[in-house]
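STRUCTURE:
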């Protein structure tokens, strides 16, 4: 504990001018003189806080409307994803359209089968009628032949 207490009290070990070993990580964006002034306590913190507040205000005033719009868009998108009615509606629409298409195809197939079946029955009946007509014609021919034979 003594080492940690001593380490937190010292701002810069060995009072070095080139290398400063501290618990604070080195910030490349700052000048060494500014960092040294912070460690030695020579920096006006009120002025630094005012400058930082000014930078924050300026940044937010430029980017806040854009950031707000992006946040609202993200929230709206996520809320629409939470609504199961949209997905259910799409699913029901898909099922309904597929069922309608299937019914149309089945109806068309039924009509084609019905027409084919009617033609087949008509062809069979036509064949039966023709067979009966041929039989009647053959019987008529036989009767006429027998009648001619009797006359002789």
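SEQUENCE:
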């Amino acid at each position: 504990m003594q080492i940690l207490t001593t380490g937190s009290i010292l701002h810069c070990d060995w009072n070095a001018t080139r290398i400063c070993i501290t618990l604070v990580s080195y910030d490349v964006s700052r000048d060494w003189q500014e960092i040294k002034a912070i460690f030695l306590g020579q920096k006006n913190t009120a002025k630094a806080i005012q400058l930082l507040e000014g930078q924050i205000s300026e940044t937010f005033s430029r980017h806040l409307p854009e950031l707000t719009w992006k946040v609202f868009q993200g929230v709206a998108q996520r809320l629409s994803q939470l609504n199961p009615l949209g997905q259910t509606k799409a699913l029901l629409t898909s099922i309904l359209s597929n069922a309608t298409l299937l019914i149309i195809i089945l109806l068309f197939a039924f009509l084609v089968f019905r027409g084919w079946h009617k033609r087949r029955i008509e062809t069979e009946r036509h064949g039966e009628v023709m067979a009966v007509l041929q039989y009647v014609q053959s019987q008529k021919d036989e009767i006429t032949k027998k009648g001619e034979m009797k006359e002789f």
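REMARK: Residues 84-151 form the longest helix (68 residues).
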